[in-house]
Batch of 4 targets.
Target 1
Amino acid sequence: MKWYVTTRQRLGLALAAATAVSVLLFFVGALRNRSMDFDYLIWNLFLAWVPLGLVLWLRKVLRTNLWSSWPALCITAAFVGFLPNTFYMITDVIHLQEVRRVDMIFDVIMFSSFIIQAFILGLISTYLFHLELRKRFSVVKSWTWLGVFILAASFAIYIGRDLRWNTWDILLNPASILFEVSDRLMAPADHPELFSTTLGFFVLIMSVYVVFWYGVYAARQPQNSK
């Protein structure tokens, strides 16, 4: 009996291999510098895997349940809460010059490996979520809803980087987060970074995702199609 590997399984193996490469680069850097600086990159990359697992679970649930059902709504809420972790890793580059290291270029390569891997996980997770939206809404409405979720993710990145809250604090400290966010929304002129960070990430993520979406679409079309 022959064992066949599906395209999705190959993608999963490729993502796992890329993650292993990122972790390997980290430990090579740790040995060269005799330091575990930047070990949080491994945890952040793990968090970037969570949305992919959640959206795969959501797609399975939606086969037998309406999106308005409690299981689907809870998984969707968790997915929206964890999705920003995939794109958030871009901001980790600010830590590159915090400590003296043996080889800055190698560190740039290592950081890029983690960041690109996390961003790809975010794009794939968003794509699978978008497919579910397309099954239930028109083209315009599905893109509109997707834009809302990406805008929310961009705002969450601001909350994480500038206000230093994380995903767990949504459950552990919701009142404190609400207080800080409302304080800034009520005095936007005093916090211009709120809009620059949120809109900046929204434009970045949305523009890259649009290319990703149509790139996948083009790759799936027959070569002789117009």
Target 2
Amino acid sequence: MNFFNAMLLTTSLFAGALAGAEDKIIKVDGSSTVYPITEAMAEQYQGSKKDASRVTVGISGTGGGFKKFCRGETDIQDASRPITTAEMEDCKKMNVKYFELPIAYDATVVAVNAKNKWLNEITADELKMIWEPAAQGKIKKWNQVNAKWPDQEIKLYGAGSDSGTFDYFTEAIVGKAKSSRGDYTASEDDNTLVKGITGNEFALGYIPMSYYIENKKNLKAVAVIGGAKAPLKTGVLPSKETVENGTYYPLSRPLFIYVNEASAKRADVKDFVNFYLKNAVTIVPEVKYIALPSKAYTLGAEHFSKGKLGTIFGKESHIGLKIEDLMKKETTF
């Protein structure tokens, strides 16, 4: 064998090795809210496999993640809201079919600085007054919203436009997804929002419940009075109980993973998804989220094994969806 042929063989073998290594990487991206769950799953899964498989978990936000997912660039999509009709069309154009698997419930917490002693509850209407597009450049101080509140500038922190939390919060509070004032500190990284709220006594923001729980020393949750459709007409704080019974309205929501059908044909991806569903009831609470009933994970595993593709959601609103309502949808899917 001459030198040129030897180099070609070496290059081919090296490329094959790289391809083999690439095949063993399970690519996950999407929601920063779902990230702690999937990251915990990935760590435990890799440990159980003695690192024979590798799972990478990115944080592009739900919207940013779906852009990659619908282009076929990732195997699994973390989502803090259901897939939208526009994203369904994007996936269809690229012939990306998917499994939709509910994996947990979360509450979006309206949070203020721990030094805030004057705000204990807030109405959905007051939140709308603060966050709607018409508030931009006009609603700048607390006492403009409620005369009992201080004559101090509101420092606002919230999810970035690629975040599923942004989509959910704006639809639940303002009445239309992505409809929000723009003059606030926005980030898809919830840790950035936590840092901002803890750094200003007159701050207000919204973050996933797990990030609030991890930072309770520096943050205070505000009870939400949910409005006419709320089960209770008094302020309700986010908790495992109020999310499960549906009284933390309208800021409770299901969380999902979406799995690319083509990726699911790979043994490693299939194995990881089954591991995820089998262990969710234990791992989800460990990372401060609310686990679904065991039956939900069993149903998810059945849908996955039987090739049940698509979504249970259409154009109808999913705001305030209770766990029991989600289960009914899943049972009839």
Target 3
Amino acid sequence: MKFRKWSGLVLSIIIFTVFFTGCSKDVAEVTPTAESGVLDDFTPIVSATGKVVPFEWGKLSFLNSGVIQEILIAEGDIVKTDQELMILAGSGQMQAAVTAAELELISAEKALVDIYDNVETAKAQAEVNLAQARIDLEDEIEERDKKDYRRVNDATLDGIRADYILAEDALEDAEEYFEAFADRAEDDPERAQALSALSNAQKNRDRALYNLNYALGKPDADEVAKADALVLLAQARLNDAESEYHKWESGPDPKQLEVAEARVKNGKAQLNSANEILMQQSLKAPFSGTVSEVYMRSDEWVVAGQPVLMLANLERLQVETTDLSEIDVARIKIGDKAEISFDAFPELLVQGTVTKIAPKSDEGAGVNYKVLVELDHIPAGLRWGMTAFVDIEVHE
């Protein structure tokens, strides 16, 4: 630690004290004290060497590998935040992928809207299907119940029995009529006509008798089994119709809605991914500043992460210490005032403020810590990399 701001008065007192002590031991020794006010303007300081650096700088690189199609800036250019600096080849294909992703997202969103728009229609159709399923089940149960009794009801049975009586009476009449011609020759027309009438009457009577016997009987086991199966089938269809109706009764089908929403979510993710890839074809300025160096040329291949240019904010310069020891860094804090001088401007002193103290020492010889000092004003001609000397005031 060293002291600055020694006043001429303090120096005179010291010289006078030494001289006076040597001349006489009887004279009281004069010792300057803080109480006397002589050292009131003493200010302890910590000194370090530093260099001028920008407030913000960085080496920029692409996130994708590719061929540099166009360089839009040159060294020394001042650029603004988000200004396009370089472009990789292949942006057309990336744009096509973005367009395809946009179309898929639009289609997915429309499908989701259609699900909600079709709820009422689907619900009405489900209600119709439910009503029809109930009717079908009732019909099949009724048909099954008939298998426990005669095949026909009483009215139908009366009609079938009447048909049989009439057919039996017609057969007797035909037989009696044929008896009148039975002795005639077989080729006699009248005999042939009577025989034909008798044959038809016999067929009609037989058919009527079969119908009567069928109507009086009960269904066989196969018919009953078939009727049972049809009842079960109708019941299953009714269950499905009820389930479908309940789905639409409370809104869209949850499964369809889940699939549609997942499709929209995936569409958005695909579009975001395509846009990100497209954006990575273009290198933009992350902050406003000056293009300090350009490392690449057009048509050169660049690897992802490879620096292509240096960008720095030269409008705000600061000083970064390079040799501040661990002993001295323990004595300072953020907000301490400092006085800075420069090799390039020997007569110039600039005031500043400590804004950052490194939490870890630098690698290399000795234990040194980087400290950043913000300048109260930027002198004309001050440049990045110039040597600076920093005196930081400490208060003990």
Target 4
Amino acid sequence: MKLLKYLFFLILIVLIGGAVYFGTQDGNFDLSESQVIQAPTTLVFDKVNDLSTWESWGPWKAEDSTMVIILGEKTKGEGASYSWTGEMDGSLETTSVTPNEQILQKLSLLTPAGERNPEVYWNFEEVDGGTEVTWGMKGEHTFMDKVYYAVSGMDFNGDMKKMQTTGLENIAKQVQEDMKKYSITVEGIKEYGGGYYLYTTTASTLAGIGEKMGIMLGKVSAFMSQNNISSAGMPFTIYNEIDEANGTVIFSSSIPVSERIIITEGDVLCGHMKPTSAVKTVLLGNYEYLSEAYNKAHEYVAQNNLIPDPSKKVFEVYSNDPGDFPNPADWRTDIYIPVFKDLRSNHPIIRGN
């Protein structure tokens, strides 16, 4: 009997000691991981803010193949929500949104030991080379949680940080893929109305066009601003002469105006384009795909036995402002290759002279 009493007291002491030990352990946690994603802040923020994208980049489904996600009526911004069923049911709701800066969310996890409600936070900061994203979660472990983690050997902190790291890597991959999307559509022969435009001209290597073009359009735009001249359309580039063998080009960066402008000095001039028939090709995507778009346009010209009009220059119109469209996949360029619409034209090429 005495032995049983000693064992009872020993067990009691162990239990009390364990309770005291676990009860005095700090149960608060605040775990986060950060990553710099090479993309505009708006794109990264929108990817996280839209809960309908979470299933595609979230790492949790790889851990629980039985998970089924149910989106709420609202999936973006404050009040957006979704829930899931699986090995552990739960839900998430966005409680606060500061555009392009922060997202706060409330998480509900239905564990065998009861419901847990940690807070989720996202911070976004524009940095050199892209956007620094921080994904964090904070809350407090219950007494039973602390006991379970100690007895089971589960590494809560390590598992959480691993999930955050994987999720951030998946977001980065998806945003990069979104930025690389593009489409090329050859619309056939279209009529371009022409008109007056202000321009400046330079020579360049083919690789250096983009860098010089921005400077040139800036110069034309500054001239228009100084002289209170309004734009009558989107900027465009005229390719005056292309030497593919040597990789050089003479081109003009231009902005349409509504009337003829008399200019007496400087290198910003006023030109006029006559109405023209041209094969129009639309590139929706980054300018790096322009060469592919031109190839498809020229293929269309050849396949349809069209004859380019040598009296008119190839030009491309930038139909939207990249400053207003942070995702390069949304940039639109309209390419025009002038051709003879009517093969009965009296042009020497048509006559065979």
